[in-house]
TrEMBL record:
InterPro entries according to UniProt: CobW-likC_sf, CobW-like_C, CobW/HypB/UreG_nucleotide-bd, P-loop_NTPase, Zinc-reg_GTPase_activator
Functional note: Zinc chaperone that directly transfers zinc cofactor to target proteins, thereby activating them. Zinc is transferred from the CXCC motif in the GTPase domain to the zinc binding site in target proteins in a process requiring GTP hydrolysis.
Organism: Vreelandella andesensis
Protein name in UniProt: GTP-binding protein
Any one GO cellular component localisation term in the record: cytoplasm
Pfam families for this protein: cobW, CobW_C
Family statement drawn from the similarity comment of this UniProt entry: Belongs to the SIMIBI class G3E GTPase family. ZNG1 subfamily.
């Protein structure tokens, strides 16, 4: 896979009224956002948000209304971008150097990420750079309790912005910050008033940074932010978890229990020895077919028995991006690390399925 020519895409999500448009308006006015194509998805025939974006010659704003990108408009994203880019070129303007997609407040961002991986035209031209999620400081806690979409938006994000912090006391911010960190421990958190935040903090969460021309494996995977489960601890001959996973300083492994009884789990599964390609394929295939809907996001650096260079994997629900080979120098060891963000799937289920395929491989 060739990363260098792909245009970065930032997905801006967050529940209804959480401050997405306010942020976008400030964000795209920054000099570093020149030549950005903004796609705004709104419900209803007469969307308003696109009118709230200050337009200039340096940005193009296109609106996708009458439906939600995560449900009914999936096929339209590719068409919308193709038309918008063709229109820019016809006006003698350059193709965009970045695309920002603002979702509806009720959107599940996972299908939008899937689209970027599966749509042939999109996948060959764009790569996900970051998912930015706004969480309203005043309503965020209640919204998270009540709305599954809001939990999934937080769980899948690379950057979590607590917005409207001018409306609440410091004392109310801490519980919300803890709540969203328990759902998504690896995402950077920032507090924002009226969308005022440096644009540099919102971008650059992808595996490859075009501006630096390098792979940023640690910043992308952030495996150290998660509670770690080791494959060796789940072997049939070793029923007890070792003390490694209970080491001091490990993030909590407590799932975040929502009102609907759904657990968001964010964890890292480590495999010390290189994995056979068959075991990897069988394990991931079964995971996706049994639990795909509940796999919000998977990122992994994988070492296989039959190749020296590590592979980067990125999956959303049932879909995986084609594996990207990385230069061996981009990692420090041969440990495979899989970061999972799941809804209602315990780490033990993922680990035990892995054990099944690896310990019984002679029988397969
Ligand atoms: N006090 C305060 N109000 C804010 C802030 N950010 C946004 N708002 C207000 O909150 C309301 C909703 O903000 P929007 O930016 O439209 O939120 P949105 O997420 O785009 O809303 P939808 O498109 O309806 O989902 C607006 O009235 C904003 O002016 C903030 O930091 N402080």
């Amino acid at each position: 896979m060739q990363f260098t020519t792909l245009t970065p895409v930032n997905v801006l999500t967050g529940f209804l009224g959480s401050g997405k448009t306010t942020l976008l308006n400030r964000w795209v006015r920054q000099a570093s956002m020149r030549n950005t194509l903004i796609v705004i998805n709104e419900f209803g025939d007469i969307g308003l948000d696109h009118q709230l974006i200050t337009q200039s010659d340096e940005q193009a704003v296109v609106e996708m209304s009458s439906g939600c990108l995560c449900c009914t408009l999936r096929g339209d994203l590719s068409q919308t971008l193709q038309q918008a880019i063709a229109a820019l070129l016809a006006e003698g303007k350059p193709a965009p150097s970045r695309v920002v997609i603002e979702t509806t407040g009720l959107a599940d961002p996972a299908p939008i990420l899937q689209l970027l991986m599966t749509d042939h035209w999109l996948a060959h031209r764009f790569q996900l750079d970051s998912v930015v999620c706004c969480v309203d400081a005043a309503n965020g806690e209640a919204t998270l309790q009540a709305h599954r979409e809001s939990q999934r938006q937080v769980a899948i994000a690379d950057r979590l912005l607590i917005t409207k912090t001018d409306l609440v006391d410091e004392a109310r911010l801490a519980p919300l910050a803890n709540q969203i960190a328990s759902i998504n421990p690896a995402a950077e958190q920032w507090q924002v008033v009226n969308g005022n935040l440096s644009p540099e903090l919102l971008v650059g969460a992808g595996l490859f940074r075009g501006d630096s021309q390098r792979y940023q494996v640690d910043q992308w995977l952030k495996s150290a932010s998660y509670h770690v489960h080791h494959a060796a601890d789940y072997r049939a001959d070793k029923p007890q978890q070792s003390s490694i996973s209970a080491a001091v300083g490990q993030p909590t492994s407590q799932p975040t229990l929502t009102r609907h009884g759904e657990n968001i789990n964010a964890f890292c599964f480590c495999v010390e020895d290189p994995i056979t390609p068959d075991a990897l394929e069988n394990w991931l295939d079964l995971l996706m077919s049994l639990m795909g809907e509940k796999m919000l996001r998977i990122k992994a650096i994988v070492h296989l028995t039959d190749r020296d260079e590590p592979l980067a994997l990125h999956g959303v629900q049932h879909i995986f991006h084609p594996p990207a080979p990385l230069p061996p120098s981009s990692v420090n060891d041969r440990v495979s690390r899989f970061v999972f963000i799941t809804q209602d799937v315990a780490p033990a289920s993922v680990a035990q399925l892995y054990t099944f395929f690896t310990s019984s491989k002679e029988a397969l």
